[in-house]
Amino acid sequence: xxxxxxxxxxxxxxxxxxDQNGLVIYTDFVANRRAAKAAMYxxxxxETDTQxxxxxxxxxxxxxxADLCQSLGVALxxxxxxxGQQVATHLxxxxxxxxxxxxxxxxxxxxxxSAVSNEVSAAPLQDGSDWMAPSEFYQMSVPIPETVN
Length: 149
Prior knowledge:
The chain is α+β, with helices and mostly antiparallel strands. The protein has one domain (2-137). The chain is 21% helix and 19% strand. It has helices spanning 61-64, 66-75, 83-91, 118-122, 134-137; strands at 2-3, 22-31, 35-44, 98-101, 107-109.
């Protein structure tokens, strides 16, 4: 549950979140001692369901949120007239799932780990249809006990 970039105004850690800059990030994974297969999804906090969450990976980010894609590109110093397209092109290569192999720092995108572990490759990721919607998730509050602080 974080804040996205904003083209019109600077966003800091103190900037209040709203429906335009608030993002909820979901992660799903399966793993064994050899590899981990995972997926990451980014949704604005005002999305009301996760029925089509598989469309909200990094490779679909700019298709859903062109304004945030543009803002990200400008924040990275890209020319305003091509910033969104450059970010979209770059992010398009990061499709779910991705694979992390034990002993390696490399992540391979669009990879179900089949070259590393048949067990992990065969295990399904959840479809997300029963996950809590971003519009509900961002409003959750989990109190941290004093003893943990």
